[in-house]
């Protein structure tokens, strides 16, 4: 088999340092004999929970690639076999942010409640697979078959044969049920309602399409979530094609997709889908009303929305659009009724309002984030726009979620 020599141990230490993941050498009959990073085995389930570690080793002996065990769909441990008696253990690794309750539950599962409870180091799923592959290659000198690793450990692997069987099953089911799928033409009609700014018709067609859509998941929650995300994606494109600036459309898209992703109620998912359709349609309606505005001004506003966090100079904005700075300044004031600097301040104040309501950032941090020269300048401009100071605005409108903290 493979000897873990001095060079391999050195490589393990560096992998440990780069990933912030604990790596241990486990020997049959002796347990953990070495740690390759600044970690204590007593503070890790791999060292503190022998039953769990034995389970991981047993799994590793049963497959021809690194073994992976997943807890609570987010916490990962791995074992890589070096020889008949030696294994390298890695973990815990976490693919998602864990709440304090979830962290406590994790420690309790391994009878480690009395330990200092710190959330496991976070790595993206692909990063974890890459780390495990690198450990395997370091030990064996061979390239890890990641497809086999995923398949043997039931991690995000789709069996082609199973996929074909599911396709056949769905086809048979549709014939038996005489199920109705909305047509491409109906989808185009809905998109045209958005493009025409017809809010009422767009909402009606959205509900009709959702009712008759093919199942996107066997679970109703996932089905509605997928429908909502599809609706937001299509509506975003329709809005942009109808004159809404990409910056504004993508901001709205990001907000709705984030809400949909976090939502855990079927009724709310349906409502979010409806609201997104209506709001994108309203955006189009507003864009149609403002069609008389110069394309240069729309480009300038798009530039401002994308650069409000930085110092914006008239010359730079004019160069980005490709026109003379004096002409841009005159045109902006003529068509918007306010100077370009005043518009920039309004955009910054609008972004600051959201941060005041939905974040716990300090006034100094918010002022700096939206690029005001000083907190006093921020306060002065904010009060001019809203009639109240930033602190008064926060006290009046702050989200209940942050008030409870």
Features:
405 residues; alpha+beta; Beta-Lactamase; Arc Repressor Mutant, subunit A; 6-stranded mixed β-sheet; 20 helices; 62% helix
Supply the CATH class of the largest domain. Alpha Beta
Query: Radius of gyration, rounded?
Result: 28 Å
Instruction: Based on Cα principal axes, name the global outline.
Output: elongated
CATH architecture heading of the largest domain: 2-Layer Sandwich
Average pLDDT number: 84
What is the total domain count? 3
- Range of strand content: 5-15%
**Which topology of the largest domain does CATH recognise?**
Beta-Lactamase
Helical content stands at: 55-70%
Could you state the order of secondary-structure elements as H and E? HEEHHEEEHEHHHHHHHHHHHHHHHH
Q: Could you list the spans in which at least 5 consecutive residues all have pLDDT below 50?
A: 174-182
| Largest sheet: number of strands, sense, barrel closure | 6 strands, mixed
Number of helices: 20
Number of strands: 6
């Amino acid at each position: 088999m493979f000897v873990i020599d001095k060079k391999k141990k050195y490589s393990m230490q560096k992998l440990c340092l780069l990933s912030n993941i604990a790596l241990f050498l486990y020997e049959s009959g002796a347990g953990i004999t070495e740690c390759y990073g600044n970690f204590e085995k007593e503070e890790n389930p791999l060292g503190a929970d022998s039953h769990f570690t034995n389970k991981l080793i047993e799994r590793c002996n049963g497959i021809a690639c690194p073994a992976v065990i997943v807890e609570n769909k987010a916490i990962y441990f791995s074992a890589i076999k070096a020889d008949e008696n030696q294994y390298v253990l890695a973990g815990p690794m976490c693919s998602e942010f864990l709440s304090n309750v979830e962290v406590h539950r994790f420690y309790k599962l391994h009878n480690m409640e009395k330990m200092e409870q710190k959330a496991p180091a976070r790595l993206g799923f692909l990063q974890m697979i890459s780390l495990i592959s690198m450990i395997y290659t370091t030990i064996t000198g061979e390239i890890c078959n990641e497809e086999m690793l995923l398949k043997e450990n039931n991690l995000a692997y789709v069996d082609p044969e199973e996929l074909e069987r599911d396709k056949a099953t769905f086809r048979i089911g549709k014939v038996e049920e005489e199920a109705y799928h909305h047509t491409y033409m109906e989808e185009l009609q809905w998109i045209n309602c958005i493009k025409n700014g017809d809010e009422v018709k767009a909402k009606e067609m959205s509900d009709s399409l959702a009712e008759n859509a093919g199942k996107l998941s066997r679970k109703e929650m996932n089905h509605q979530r997928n429908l909502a995300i599809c609706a937001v994606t299509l509506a975003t494109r329709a809005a942009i094609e109808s004159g809404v600036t990409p910056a504004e459309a993508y901001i709205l898209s990001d907000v709705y997709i984030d809400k949909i992703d976090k939502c855990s109620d079927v009724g709310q998912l349906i409502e979010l889908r409806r609201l997104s359709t209506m709001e994108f349609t309203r955006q189009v309606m507003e864009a149609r009303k403002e069609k008389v505005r110069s394309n240069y001004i729309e480009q300038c506003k798009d530039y401002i929305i994308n650069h409000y966090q930085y110092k914006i100079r008239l010359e730079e904005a004019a160069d980005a659009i490709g026109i003379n700075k004096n002409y841009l300044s005159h045109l902006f004031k003529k068509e918007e009724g306010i100077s370009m600097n005043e518009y920039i301040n309004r955009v910054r104040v609008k972004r600051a309002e959201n941060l005041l309501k939905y974040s716990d950032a300090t006034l100094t941090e918010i002022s700096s984030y939206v690029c005001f020269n000083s907190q006093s300048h921020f306060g002065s401009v904010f009060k001019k726009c809203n009639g109240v100071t930033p602190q008064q605005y926060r006290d009046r409108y702050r989200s209940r979620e942050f008030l409870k903290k």
